[in-house]
């Protein structure tokens, strides 16, 4: 696989509403979308920075993985996502290269993209997402 760029950086927040002023008033970015991803039990807010997005993740349920992450770490940087052409192929390539996967097959993410996660055990402890149109 050859990622083209960092698609987004995911940041876990207790409340998108409380986090917005930093991004909008300090960094001067504009939130262009707020979307709920029922599958992952999160509400997301997006900011565009060049080719990369900042994705704020607010849990919508106490059993969401983001809620557990916030409970443990108080929030903060949660994952990094690389843009790839074809997520299914990229996951197979990663596994063939000895990487442990969280998702064997792509699933649906925000903005209608296909996503798949690699296990932090294999990625120097950075939860890594692959993200693409197919
Ligand atoms: Zn993500």
Describe the model.
This protein is an alpha+beta fold and 134 residues long. The chain has a single domain, classed as Roll (2,3-Dihydroxybiphenyl 1,2-Dioxygenase, domain 1). Helices cover 22% and strands 38% of the residues. It has helices at residues 16-26, 65-73, 87-96, and strands at residues 5-12, 31-37, 42-49, 52-59, 76-83, 107-108, 114-118, 128-132. It has an 8-stranded mixed beta sheet. The longest helix is centred in the first third of the chain and has 11 residues, at 16-26. It starts with a strand and ends with a strand. The model has no long low-confidence stretch (mean pLDDT 96). The site of zinc ion (ZN) has 6 residues, from strand 1 and strand 5.
List keywords for this structure.
134 residues; alpha+beta; 8-stranded mixed beta sheet; globular; binds zinc ion
Quick overview:
The chain has 134 residues and is an alpha+beta fold. It contains three helices and eight strands, in the order E-H-E-E-E-H-E-H-E-E-E. An eight-stranded mixed sheet has the order 2-3-4-1-5-8-7-6.
């Amino acid at each position: 696989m050859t990622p083209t760029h960092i698609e987004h950086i995911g940041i876990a927040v207790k409340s998108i509403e409380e986090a917005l002023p930093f991004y909008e008033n300090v960094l001067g970015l504009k939130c262009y979308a707020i979307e709920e991803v029922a599958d992952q039990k999160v509400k997301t807010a997006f900011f565009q920075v060049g080719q990369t997005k900042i994705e704020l993740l607010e849990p919508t349920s106490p059993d969401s993985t983001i809620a557990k992450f916030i409970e443990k770490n108080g929030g903060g940087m949660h994952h990094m996502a690389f843009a790839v052409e074809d997520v299914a192929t990229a996951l197979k390539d990663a596994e063939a290269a000895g990487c442990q996967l969280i998702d064997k097959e792509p699933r649906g993410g925000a903005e209608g993209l296909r996503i798949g996660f690699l296990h932090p055990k294999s990625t120097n402890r950075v939860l890594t997402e692959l993200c693409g149109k197919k």
